[in-house]
Design a protein that fits this description.
Layout lengths: L7 E9 L8 H23 L4 H14 L19 E7 L4 E8 L5 H11 L4 E3 H10 L13 H10 L16 E2 L2 E6 L5 E7 L20 E3 L4 E7 L1 H6 L2 H12 L3 H16 L3 E7 L4 E2 L6 E8 L5 E5 L2
Parallel strand pairs: 3-4
Antiparallel strand pairs: 1-5, 1-6, 1-12, 2-3, 2-7, 6-7, 8-9, 9-10, 10-11, 12-13
Helix pairs in contact: 1-2, 2-3, 7-8
InterPro entries: Ntn_hydrolases_N (IPR029055), Peptidase_T2 (IPR000246)
Organism: Rufibacter tibetensis
GO biological process, one term: proteolysis
């Protein structure tokens, strides 16, 4: 008897003031193609019987390697003109998690977070300690120029002598949310979430956002859902967004869509928090709510056609 359940994958590449007017047709095509490529990599793993953890990790690696997104190679510059990256990954079956923050020159921070999950007794490592662990585990490092993109450098140059910081993907200075992430449920019903980011342009050095904080920007629990967030991290931390959605499902009996909509469109919005998230439930339900003008996103549910979108539909 086939005991496989419906499997599904969803991803995001950041949210913010993303409008049709803000992207050239060429950039629109490039973003959609990058999202489709990442989606297909993760979906193929699930289709071939692979587990959710491996699927979300592989999906996020593709997004980290693409300079269009503010994670890995395309990370933004901080106040000191450097790249400090955060990442987290979580497995819903065991509640095992790995996270890193403030790491420099690590090619794929999500792979380092995965090493923390699989090969350490810890959940969360930062800065030099995380980098030393990376070297001991054979994680790839790259020189500074690998992470240099002209667009990110120009963003930083415009702000470097001010106290203004800027989030990603926007035409305005305070509404750019750059993070990548993926969530999945596999054929065995196991859930996983992975998130990675370069943070905010001109952010204070050593600033930590919601991405690597388990329960804020990243969470997975087989009883409920897997969540990966993108937005103004300070608000997502204060509202413990990812875990709040899980709690609404577990304790109030809400569906994933109901819980995610309540948090994103009511709780976050009422406090001034902007952004969005992708989520998947153990039954294969997918939710991709956002309260900003756009969010790079995609989903592929078994038996359905893949979906990629950018703007408000």
């Amino acid at each position: 008897m086939d005991t496989k359940r419906p499997f599904a994958l969803a991803l995001h590449g950041g949210a913010g003031t993303i409008t049709r007017a803000s992207l050239t047709p060429q950039l629109d095509r490039e973003y959609r193609q990058a999202l489709k490529q990442a989606l297909s990599i993760g979906y193929q793993i699930l289709r071939d019987g692979g587990d959710a953890l491996r699927a979300v990790e592989a999906t996020v690696v593709v997004l980290e390697d693409c300079p269009l997104f503010n994670a890995g190679r395309g990370s933004v510059f901080n106040k000191q003109g450097r790249h400090e990256m955060d990442a987290a990954i979580m497995y819903g079956k065991t509640l095992g998690a790995g996270a890193v923050t403030g790491v420099r020159n690590v090619r794929n921070p999500i792979l380092l977070a995965s090493e923390v999950l699989h090969h350490s007794d810890h959940v969360f490592l930062c800065q030099h300690g995380a980098e030393e662990f990376a070297r001991n585990q054979g994680i790839a490092f790259e020189p500074d120029d690998y992470f240099f993109t002209q667009q990110r450098h120009e963003q930083w140059q415009a702000l470097r002598d001010s106290n203004v910081y800027m989030l990603d993907h926007s035409e305005t200075k305070d509404k750019k949310f750059g993070t990548v992430g993926a969530v999945a449920v596999d054929g065995q019903g196991n859930l996983a979430a992975a998130t990675s980011t370069g943070g905010m342009t001109n952010k204070n050095f050593n600033r930590i956002g919601d991405t690597p904080i388990i329960g804020a920007g990243t969470y997975a629990n087989n009883r409920t859902c897997a969540i990966s967030c993108t937005g103004h991290g300070e608000y997502f931390m204060r509202h413990v967004v990812a875990y709040d959605i899980s709690c609404l499902m577990e304790y109030k009996g809400l569906s994933l869509t109901e819980a995610a909509d309540l948090v994103v469109h009511k709780k976050l919005k009422e406090s001034g928090g902007e952004g969005g998230l992708v989520g998947v439930s153990a039954t294969g339900e997918v939710a991709m709510p956002f309260n900003s003008e756009g969010m790079y996103r995609g989903a592929w549910v078994a038996g359905q056609e893949p979906e990629v979108a950018i703007y408000q539909e």
